[in-house]
């Protein structure tokens, strides 16, 4: 499954979470600095949230 984290293509296995996507993209540590995770519509997401094909995730 392909998702996009900050417009970077990330490949995940089915049933992986937002946390897995951020880890794969190397951005999980940036959350410790106070950044938050949002979907393509600007809604805040939890790290245990589900992912789906072509999902767009942003860390701001």
Overview of the structural elements:
The protein has one helix and four strands, in the order E-E-H-E-E. With 60 residues, it is of the alpha+beta class. The chain has one domain: Ubiquitin-like (UB roll). Strands 2-1-4-3 form a four-stranded mixed sheet, covered by helices on one side. Strand 1 and strand 2 form a beta hairpin. It is globular, with a radius of gyration of 10 Å. 18% of the residues are buried.
Short description:
This protein is 13% helix and 25% strand. It is α+β, with helices and mostly antiparallel strands. It has a single domain (2-59), classed as Ubiquitin-like (UB roll) (Roll).
CATH class: Alpha Beta
Work out the helicity level.
10-25%
Instruction: Give the termini separation.
Output: 23 Å
User: From the alpha-carbon coordinates, what is the Rg to the nearest angstrom?
Assistant: 10 Å
SS summary, helix count: 1
List keywords for this structure.
4 strands, 60 residues, globular, four-stranded mixed beta sheet, Ubiquitin-like (UB roll), 1 helix, single chain, alpha+beta
Give the SSE map.
Layout: E1 2-5, E2 8-11, H1 18-25, E3 37-39, E4 56-59
Parallel strand pairs: 1-4
Antiparallel strand pairs: 1-2, 3-4
């Amino acid at each position: 499954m392909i998702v996009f984290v900050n417009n970077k293509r990330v490949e995940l296995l089915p049933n992986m979470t937002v946390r897995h996507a951020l880890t794969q993209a190397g951005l999980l540590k940036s959350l410790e600095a106070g950044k938050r995770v949002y979907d393509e519509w600007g809604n805040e997401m939890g790290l245990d949230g589900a992912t789906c094909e072509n999902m767009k995730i942003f860390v701001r």
